[in-house]
Design a protein that fits this description.
The protein contains 9 helices and 4 strands. By secondary structure, it is mainly α. The longest helix is centred in the last third of the chain and has 16 residues.
Amino acid sequence: MKVLLESKGGNVLFTHQQHADMGDMRCGDCHHTSGEDPNPPRCTDCHPAKFSAQYLEEHTELNMSPQQCASCHHPRADISPFDHDLHVDEYTSDCTDCHHDTDIEDEPQQCSNCHEETDSGIPSLMNAAHERCANCHEEDFSDSYRNCGFCHKRLPAPADEVDYTPCADCHSEPVSNSVPSRVAAFHQQCQGCHEKAGTGPYGKDACYQCHIQ
């Protein structure tokens, strides 16, 4: 099956069947769903061509399953295991590259010991971690922290456990900066996979390999 993706930069003819036939790929590798989901959501179900107030108001009427809703309203999103020893051995020269110096803490401790969701004036754990990690991982924290998958991973939530968490509970930026538009989603997902595999179209000079002029 081939899917025609219309684009002002030249339409893209996507060979869905060719990708589905690859033995090491599951639906969940591309779709935000469980790899065993027999009816994964289409990209266009959630990623709009353009974000607008109308989309935010009407997207709840798309008749998606709770499993699909959980792709964005993801109560079971998690942070991938943080390898502290790796950072100590490979990336840092001093504990204060990540931790505060002795003016704030006598010795390094867990960030959550002080950074909580409070009105004390101390940054929340989320904001503190984003700011500190971005000092080194600037390329992954650009464009309003859009590359959430660098640290966070989605775990498929059972339909009966879906908790509809508003985007604003975690994202201080507008939702249009938190959830990629359709074009951004395709570029990020498709090119990211091809770059990881080291083959096929990826990079700024490979547009012609996907777009039909």
